[in-house]
Structure of RmlD-like substrate binding domain-containing protein:
Amino acid sequence: MGVATNGSAAEQAPAPALKFLIYGRTGWIGGLLGGLCAARRIPFAYGAGRLENRAQLEADIDAAAPTHVFNAAGVTGRPNVDWCETHRAETVRANVVGTLTLADVCRARGLVLINYATGCIFEYDDAHPLGSGVGFKEEDTPNFVGSFYSKTKAMVEELLKNYENVCTLRVRMPISSDLSNPRNFITKITRYEKVVNIPNSMTILDELLPISIEMAKRNLTGIWNFTNPGVVSHNEILEMYRDYIDPSFSWKNFNLEEQAKVIVAPRSNNELDQTKLKNEFPELLSIKDSLIKYVFEPNRKTSKA
Ligand SMILES: NC(=O)c1ccc[n+]([C@@H]2O[C@H](COP(=O)([O-])OP(=O)(O)OC[C@H]3O[C@@H](n4cnc5c(N)ncnc54)[C@H](OP(=O)(O)O)[C@@H]3O)[C@@H](O)[C@H]2O)c1
């Protein structure tokens, strides 16, 4: 872990070479992270162990001798988080027991763990109303336990506060430039028969995953709202999709009551406060600018107006 130095010999010594150990090889975020490391020539290995198996995690660390560990493994449910409602033990095993075991093993080895968590543990409330621009801060207590998935994620976030080696990144509604990926929030909402229209904080992975690598290099720990500043609504994204990708695209909206009839567990809608991440990374783009720069311009199929 990072040790503050003050003009000592240690400060003049070359920085130790990086070596990342990544969990979530077969997953969306874990796959992207490995690709980023390869492109940046950062040595990395994927963990083979199951998160809840302490001995396997220790063997992974022995074999890889990493400087940092990244956790992009967890149960998100297929086709969606509703799966977690009916697979509660499996969800707890990966998201609670597994994540805590990895944090504990990393702590015992003096390793920082960068943990891709979720910001879907909050919902708009009287103190943070929709449209107010008042977002939930890192120190706020989760107020959304409408789904079992979110409940496990809120529980584990609370417990991880006791691990000073863990960097918790609250990801929300992740978006990438790969519009063919069914996990991409944009791809999901373009394929739904009907969509709600609610402003939300979201994470542009093309911009933010490199930032998470930088956070590891800086040995940052604690809780971080890991979204782009500001909010964007479903309709605003679909309008961009129509303007940049498919001029003939159209969609239908429905309200939360109608949505509740086609899903099992309620979904979280919120704005996260971005002051902390923006202070650390002043170049961070607003959600709408990031969407245009990283997603819609590179995929543009329409001619410029
Ligand atoms: N995608 C989202 O909408 C979203 C939003 C916010 C936060 N997140 C969080 O970000 C993280 C990564 O998400 P993702 O979308 O990349 O997930 P994903 O595509 O579903 O991938 C999950 C990965 O976790 C692995 N995994 C599951 N249980 C495991 C266990 N017990 N031990 C070891 N590996 C296990 C899976 O491997 P196997 O196939 O071998 O099981 C897979 O590689 C998750 O914690 C998720 O909660 C995701």
Summary: Residues 23-30, 50-52, 72-76, 94, 98, 116, 118, 171-172, 174, 183 surround NAP (CB under 6 Å). The radius of gyration is 20 Å. Confidence is low (pLDDT under 50) at residues 1-10. The domain at 12-182+201-231+269-285 is CATH 3.40.50.720 (Rossmann fold).
